[in-house]
Write a structure and sequence with these properties.
Blueprint lengths: L12 E9 L3 E4 H5 L6 H8 L3 E4 L6 H16 L8 E5 L10 H9 L5 E5 L5 H14 L6 E8 L17 E10 L7 E8 L7 E2 L11 H5 L6 E2 L1 H22 L9 E4 L4 H11 L10 H4 L6 H11 L8 E8 L3 E8 L3
Parallel strand pairs: 4-5, 4-6, 11-12
Antiparallel strand pairs: 1-7, 2-3, 6-7, 8-13, 9-10, 12-13
Enzyme class: transferase
InterPro entries: ACP_syn_III_C, ACP_syn_III_N, FabH, Thiolase-like
Catalytic activity: malonyl-[ACP] + acetyl-CoA + H(+) = 3-oxobutanoyl-[ACP] + CO2 + CoA
Length: about 350
């Protein structure tokens, strides 16, 4: 391997801590069999999902972020008051405004911090991560809390057998700080958006185009609308293209990676990308069977799984990748420095 580390003006940035959270309530495939015309075998064969977590009534995605943030900051041994910026990747905010970042800031007591939300579908965490990295690399900030979380069950139509089996709730948070001497941290990224794909995966109502009315509710316009085949084809193609581009321009192959942490949307998409990269199966992180698709929450949750399984260790070269509504594509290459 000949890793061409991207030069950085100023300083390098790294992930210094990780925390995750999923709600305790679990919805299994057997539970879904009682709700809609489906069965466990069909769901597992087509998606790899066995169960997913559901956020309790009266809670919002900010509560997922708060629990993950508390674990993240405790792991780093710092107080919330030391956090300078909070960036939240989500498409299921508690409300249209204020931002989820504002709610998280207040709930954890990060007095004096500023922040914002990033709406990039399932690529939300990867996009938010890069925003935090650039703030640290520039020297403008030194402690940026990046959250990726979604409460997808809030916008899932449980009469639609094609989509209701896919989604779950959960997420995670990482702290971005300057890398120490001798550490590499974040190396490079490839991001892309393609708005022509918006018709294939969207939530039609609730915004300025289709404000909430009895008609939009009756037409189920506040639920996820997805053209599964179009999304699948785009995800398979673009995840492979973006990851290949990122590795090639950094002089890296799949065999050089400690692990590959992909967005957990569909097991077949993951294995297809891994095969294109020449990744050994034991270095590909898959936990979709436990959580389903938690959108912006999948990558931090998969990072936690990788650590727990001993597949993500300090010094490992790591590739993360996601494709989401928009369409959005996000990939990043980094050294794990925890």
């Amino acid at each position: 391997m000949s890793l061409a580390v991207r030069p950085v003006v100023g300083r390098r940035a790294k992930i210094s801590a990780l925390g995750t959270y999923v709600p305790p309530q679990v919805l299994t495939n057997k539970d879904l069999e009682k709700m809609v015309d489906t069965n466990d075998q069909w769901i597992v064969e087509r998606t790899g999902i066995k169960e997913r977590h559901v956020l309790a009534a009266g809670k919002g995605v900010s509560d997922i972020c708060v629990e993950a943030a508390k674990k993240c900051l405790a792991a780093r041994g710092i107080e919330p008051s030391e956090v300078e910026v909070i960036i939240v990747g989500t498409v299921t905010p508690d409300m249209m405004f204020p931002s989820t970042a504002c709610l998280v800031q207040d709930k954890i007591g990060a007095k004096g911090a500023w922040g914002f939300d990033v709406s990039a579908g399932c690529s939300g965490f990867v996009f938010a991560l890069q925003a935090g990295v650039k703030l640290v690399e520039s020297g403008a900030q030194s402690k940026v809390l990046v959250c990726g979380a979604d409460a997808n069950t809030r916008m899932t139509d449980y009469t639609d057998r094609a989509t209701c089996v896919l989604f779950g709730d959960g997420g995670g948070a990482v702290l971005i700080e300057p890398a120490e001497e001798g550490e590499i941290g974040m190396i490079d990224f490839v991001h892309e958006i393609d708005g022509s794909g918006g018709v294939s995966l969207n939530l039609p109502a609730g915004g300025s185009l289709n404000p909430s009315t009895h008609e939009t509710i009756d037409k189920k316009m506040h639920f996820i609308h997805q053209d599964g085949q179009a999304v699948y084809k785009f995800a398979v193609r673009k995840m492979a293209e973006a990851t290949t581009k990122l590795l090639e321009r950094n002089g890296v192959t799949g065999a050089d990676l400690g692990c590959f942490i992909p967005h957990q949307a569909n097991k077949r998409i993951i294995t297809s990308t891994a095969d294109r990269l020449g990744m050994p199966a034991d270095r590909v992180i898959i936990n979709i069977e436990k959580y389903g698709n938690t959108s912006a929450g999948t990558i931090p949750l998969a990072m936690e799984t990788a650590v727990e399984e001993g597949k993500l260790k300090k010094g490992d070269l790591v590739l993360i990748a996601a494709v989401g509504a928009g369409f959005t594509v996000g990939t990043a290459l980094l050294r794990w420095e925890i």
